[in-house]
Amino acid sequence: MPTTISKLSTADADHLLDVARRAAEEAGATVSITVLDAGGHLLAFRRDDNAVLISGETSTRKAYTALQLDAATADVVDAVKPDGPFHSLQTALDRPLLFIAGGVPLRRDGHLIGAIGVGGGAPVDDHRIATAAAATLQPQ
Prior knowledge:
The chain is α+β, with helices and mostly antiparallel strands. It contains 3 helices and 4 strands. The chain has a single domain, classed as Beta-Lactamase (2-Layer Sandwich), CATH 3.30.450.150.
């Protein structure tokens, strides 16, 4: 019998945006939040009124990086430093990756189903906000 893998729904994405927005408010951070599905396609996006404009791009690239590597961007920062084992990874793909904390893969029932990226705050805050949202993703 084939296994059915639950996809990330728009309702899931809206929920993740809401949780991340509340976590950002609690942290006093003005951010952009991006949610991508397993194919790297945009499901949801939000930029706070006062967030720096580049935060939209950084949140999206962080989510894309977390999705492609199936790892939180905070966990791979050292690997891409000039002396790191994956130092050339930043230029290896056509679509730019971003190795700054704030991107987190989304998993359901052990399967990668998307990613969330937060940009605009301090990297440690962006990571905390993305992680808080990802932790609330419910199994299907």
